[in-house]
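Morning run. Coffee first, then this:
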Amino acid sequence: MHQGKLVFAQPMLYLPLSTFRRCVAEHNGEHKVKDFSCLYQFFAMAFAQLTYRESLRDIEVNLRAQARLLYHMGFRCQTISRNTLANANSTRPWQIYADFAQHLNGIARPLYATQPFGVELDAAVYAFDASTISLCLSVFAWAPFRSTQAAIKLHTLLDLRGNIPSFIHIADGKIHEVNVMDDLVLEPGALST
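And here it is:
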């Protein structure tokens, strides 16, 4: 029998679950939910991110391989099927996880506020960049980029002390970074590159 905490369960212990539950209640995320709660969905997607899973099938196969250890990972359900995870991802409000991520960023940023990064500056320093993410035009017709390609742009403002994103904007693939910079709200005296 397993003794102690699994590696996945150890960082999950530090999550502020009261804040997560508040975000779920604020967006009514547990409406008509029987077994697979928003917390289990978060755990499944965190597991997928930390273990570099590429699809729902990949997530399902890996979690089923750990079926005996799911309880020790924080799940209180027997198995997690691909259909259940797909339905949860498509029907539950994404704002739950966005609000929770903002709260986690609020916790992490002060921890790195005094960390040196090689340049002696008193002001905050940010880096702004965009990445184009190619998509299949037949599946994502709402995101035309070129005549035969679909794409979106992920604009990110990165706080260089701690490498924590402080602003993320997802836009049409044709929108240039200069147009998104008008939406940024930086603190007074901050430097942006």
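The helical segments are 9-12, 17-26, 38-50, 56-65, 70-73, 82-91, 95-111, 177-181. Good start to the day.
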